[in-house]
Amino acid sequence: IIGDGPLKRGLISKVKSLKLENNVEFLGEISNELLPKHLSVADVFVRPSLSEGLGISFLEAMASGLPIIGTQVGGIPDFLKDGETGLFCKVANPKDLANKIIRLIKDDGLRNKLSNNGRKLVQEKYDWDKIAKEFEKLYMHYGI
Q1: In this predicted model, what pLDDT tens digit does every residue of 42-97 receive, in sequence order?
Q2: Which of 6, 48, 58, 76 falls between 20 and 30 A from 124, CA-CA?
Q3: For residue 44, which phi and psi values (nearest 5 degrees)?
Q4: 3-class SS letters over 77-138
C-alpha cells in the first residue's frame, strides 16, 4: 500500500489481526521517481475515491499496464469505462470493492483486457507529446 493518511494505523492493525503481514506491505509516501518501479510489480491499482479531479494516479497506473478499480466520482468516468478500461466499485462500499478485487484476481482474461485497453487509452489520449501538438494546433488556429 502506497501513501499515508489518518487510516494507516487502523489498516496496519487490521492486517495484523488477519495475519496478513507477509502479504501486505505499507510503503508510505514515495517519490515520483520511484513510482513506476512500484507500479511495475503491482497486480492491480485500487483507489476507491470519495471525490476526485482528473485522477492522474489512475492514468499513471494504466500507463504501467495495471488494471484499475475506482469509483464513479469526479473525472474518473472520463477515462474509466466499466468492464473496458477498468472496474467501478460502489462509493464507500468495502464489500463491493473486495468483490471487484477478487474478480480481477480470478479472471485472467478480464485483467488482461483492462490492462491492454487502459494502456492503449493513455497512449492515445493522454500522451504529453500528443497533448502538446493539440495545444500547438489551437495556438496556430487562433494566432496566439
Answers
A1: 999 999 999 999 899 999 999 999 999 999 999 999 999 999 999 999 999 999 99
A2: 48
A3: -155, 150
A4: HHCCCECCCEEECCCCCHHHHHHHHHHHHHCHHHHHHHHHHHHHHHHHHCCHHHHHHHHHHH
The pLDDT value given to residue 19: 97
Q: What is the C-alpha separation between 87 and 72, in angstroms, rounded?
A: 10
For residues 86 and 80, the answer to whether their CB atoms sit within 8 Å is yes
pTM score:
0.87
Q: DSSP secondary-structure letter at 9?
A: H
| Mean pLDDT, range 104-109, rounded to an integer | 97
Q: Which helix (DSSP H) or strand (DSSP E) does residue 68 occupy?
A: strand 68-70
Q: What angle do CA 22, 89, 93 make, to 5 degrees?
A: 75
Strand 68-70 relative to strand 87-88, pairing? parallel
Q: Which three cell numbers stand for residue 37?
A: 518501479
Task: Give the position of cell 468495502.
Answer: 94
